[in-house]
Amino acid sequence: MTLSRCSETSCDPCLLTCSPRSGTSSRPCSGCPLLGKMTQFLPPNLLALFAPRDPIPYLPPLEKLPHEKHHNQPYCGIAPYIREFEDPRDAPPPTRAETREERMERKRREKIERRQQEVETELKMWDPHNDPNAQGDAFKTLFVARVNYDTTESKLRREFEVYGPIKRIHMVYSKRSGKPRGYAFIEYEHERDMHSTTQLACS
C-alpha cells in the first residue's frame, strides 16, 4: 500500500487516509472535487451532518462592563443596622433537638410500656377455667418446645408414641398467619407414661 496526496494544491499533505480499493492512502480537502463525488452517494441523514450551521446572531457591544458601572449607593458596613437587631434578652430560649440515641431509647421505652399494657389487659381477660381451647389433664400433658416448623402431628405421634399411648396432640399455630409457632402439647392416656417420657428422653 502506498500513500498519495490529493490532486488539489491546497490540500494538506499530512491529512491522509487509506483507500482499500486502490491500495493508496489519500484524503481530499474540503474544496476538493473528490469530496463532492463522495458525498453524493451518502443518505440524507448523513448529509445533514455536513450541512452548515446557522450564523451567529449579531449582538451590539456593551457600553460598560458590569465591574465598570457606577453604583449610586456606595458600599457600607452593617453598623447603622445594629439597632434594628433583636435584643438578646427578648429572644426565646434555644430549643434542644433530640439526638439519634435519645430517640431510639425513647422508642424502646414506649414499646416496652405498650407491651406491658397489652400483657396486663390480656391477663385480666384470661380465664383458664372457662377457656374452650384448654382441654385435657395438665398432669398427663407434655410440653414440647423448639419444634421444627415442617414437623407434622403424625411425626410427633410416631416419635412419642413409643413411650405410651397418646390421647391427643395439640400443635399451636399463629392466629394471624396460620403458621406453626414451634411448640406443641402432647396428652398421654396415663400420667406414668408422661413421666417416663421426660426421664427416658432426657437420659
From TrEMBL:
Residues 97-116 have a biased composition (Basic and acidic residues). Residues 140-203 form the RRM domain. Pfam families: RRM_1 (PF00076), U1snRNP70_N (PF12220). PROSITE patterns: RRM. GO terms for molecular function: RNA binding. Its main location: nucleus. It is found in: Nucleus. One of its GO terms (cellular component) is nucleus. Keywords: Nucleus, Ribonucleoprotein, RNA-binding. Residues 86-116 are annotated as: Disordered. The keyword Protein biosynthesis does not apply. This is U1 small nuclear ribonucleoprotein 70 kDa. It comes from Equus caballus (Horse). The gene is SNRNP70.
